[in-house]
Design a protein that fits this description.
This protein has 136 residues and is mainly beta. β5 (64-79) and β6 (82-97) form a beta hairpin. It is 8% helix and 53% strand. The longest helix has 11 residues, at 15-25. The chain has one domain (5-122): Immunoglobulin-like (Sandwich).
């Protein structure tokens, strides 16, 4: 596999309704992603303004890179007999199938200025091993 693939976590039945719901209630804020490649590495750049590293989880399962994040904001205003409390919660999950030339042991990440950088070091593509199986 030589190309990066985007893996959707779900396929909405009614995408327009889901977008309306998400935009109105703010439940899903899918970050924009740039993927930069040079001779040594891939640099995934995810826009995550307002999130800190404590709110982000990055995992590698096989050749699938998963990035999850969540934001919780609570504001409270008590004035006299009036009481108001608002919750704002949003989360996201992005998954990417990585090419064979990524070194799974040499992945690093940093988050600065609202951008999460995930650096994936390139290596020689692994060649599937083959051998003859004798029948006894």
């Amino acid at each position: 596999m030589g190309m990066l693939e985007k893996r959707q976590t779900h396929q909405p039945i009614f995408p327009a309704m889901e977008n309306l719901w998400d935009n109105f209630f703010g439940h899903s804020a899918m970050p924009s992603v740039n993927v930069k490649e040079d001779e040594n590495e891939f640099d995934f750049q995810l826009a995550v303004p307002g999130l800190t590293k404590e709110n982000i989880d990055i995992t590698l399962e096989g050749n699938e890179l998963n990035v999850k994040g969540e934001r919780r904001e609570e504001t409270e205003d008590t004035t006299g007999k009036f009481h108001r409390q608002e919750f704002n919660y949003s989360s996201f999950q992005r998954s990417f199938v990585l090419p064979d030339n990524v070194d799974p042991e040499n992945i690093r990440a940093d988050c600065r200025d609202g951008v999460l950088h995930i650096h994936l070091t390139k290596t020689s593509p692994s060649t599937p091993s083959s051998r003859r199986i004798d029948i006894s």
